[in-house]
Write a structure and sequence with these properties.
The protein is 23% helix and 21% strand. The protein has helices at residues 2-10, 72-84, 137-151; strands at 14-18, 25-26, 28-36, 42-51, 108-109, 123-127. β3 and β4 (42-51) form a beta hairpin. The protein is globular and about 60 Å long. The termini are far apart.
């Protein structure tokens, strides 16, 4: 849990502020998961701090939801191209992908359970970047990746 919070500090995900009176505060919770190998043996324990996005209200806390989906034709083209060019294709997991997306809306979250700052009990965190569980997190992550690729010379496909 401490490592997760240090990653938030390194990525400048949030900063503490006094609790605003005119804003809703989204709660946070810890999610625990055991990673298993192919034999069902626990290889590691994983923990992630997520926001309780289910309490966000559309039109108040966010405008639209978004889920990036790859078209099957694009995947076919990628696999065919890599096979033709004899390129090795590796799967990849972005450990903290959502922590790289910037948000447009002002979002405040409560302090992490069991890690509350007793010197500042009325402070909350103002998010500078997206966090898992936010309704707008997938869009923020997608927009940042899309901007990076377009700035690097790639073009969006039509359709």
């Amino acid at each position: 849990m401490q490592e997760e919070l240090h990653q938030f500090e390194r990525n400048k995900v949030w900063h503490p502020e006094p609790r605003p009176k005119d804003r809703s505060i989204v709660g946070t919770k810890w999610v625990f998961k055991n990673k298993l190998d192919e034999f069902g043996i626990v290889t590691r324990n994983k923990v992630r701090l997520v926001v309780q996005g289910y309490i966000q209200e559309e039109g108040i806390d966010y405008e639209k939801t978004f889920a990036p989906v790859a078209r099957i034709e694009a995947i076919h083209i990628l696999v065919a191209f890599t096979a033709h060019m004899e390129i090795k294709l590796y799967p990849m997991d972005l450990k903290s992908a959502f922590l790289n997306g910037y948000r447009k809306e002002e979002v405040y979250v409560s302090q992490a359970p069991s890690f509350e700052n007793h010197d500042f009990p009325n402070h909350v965190f103002k998010l500078d970047k997206a966090l898992y569980g936010l309704k707008q997190a997938p869009r923020a992550c997608y927009e940042r990746l899309s901007k990076f690729l377009i700035d690097d010379g790639f073009q969006k496909g039509q359709g």
